[in-house]
Specification:
Blueprint: H1 2-26, E1 36-46, E2 53-58, E3 61-66, H2 70-76, E4 88-95, E5 103-111, E6 114-117
Parallel strand pairs: 3-5
Antiparallel strand pairs: 1-2, 1-4, 2-3, 4-5, 5-6
Amino acid sequence: MPQLIRHCLAGLLLMAAGLSAAFAHHGWRWTDDGRFELTARVEKASLGNPHGVLTMDADGSKWVVEVGQPWRNEQAGLTDSMLAKGATLTVVGKRSANAKEQRMKAERIIIDGKNFDLYPERLPDGKK
């Protein structure tokens, strides 16, 4: 019986560690504190829950950009077609705290000079 309990506890600890990593990934803790801006062309868009992910090409450099959940994109005025392959976007937000990782989380997307604010409360000129 004690061995069964040890196995169950080990399984629970592994599940808790996995959930902790998942929550950290979907928050902002993996980003740095500075503002970052990237202008690039969308190569691939995977939009949906828990959040959309764009693979982008900035002069031959590949970037992964997390955008909002479908409801957040819609609330900002974005449509899936605006984020489709071939679109050129300027993304403002937070880049990964790991400088070797070309990944960022979008707070604002700029298309043809128009701002689409995903997280206006996080922007210096946004709504609080």
